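Entry 12.
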Amino acid sequence: MLRETKAKLLSGFTAALVAVLAALFSLLSNPGTSDAQDKAKRAAAPADPRVEAGRRAYERLGCGVCHSVAGAGSPGSPLDGVGARHDAAVLKAWIVGAEPARASLPASIARLKARYASEPDLDALVAYLQALPGEARRRR
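Predicted 3D structure (tokens):
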């Protein structure tokens, strides 16, 4: 066999091995993602249509990129029980990046959140967050 052919075979094998290992790592790092999403939907089983509209807004706006509910989404900023810790005005301030929340946010995030101020389902999103079950911590 020529060196060039051996090199091509070795590079193909290496690429396939890397792809398999990446897929395996992804599966092991994110077990049951669909179960977590189902759990998140059940966690805030809305009796109120506004809460359901807020859940849909949470999904539509992509809030799960930065936050999680019942383990679904980004684990860095879980929102479980956030309604027990903050009143509606504080939640709205955090959603739109207004004062007093703005002081705690990086400028780029505050600018990003500012676009939600005109969101028609903003009040529904607040209702959804208030309905989320979770550990109640001290109120701010």
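Annotation: Confidence is low (pLDDT under 50) at residues 136-140. The helical segments are 3-29, 33-43, 49-60, 82-85, 88-96, 107-114, 122-131.
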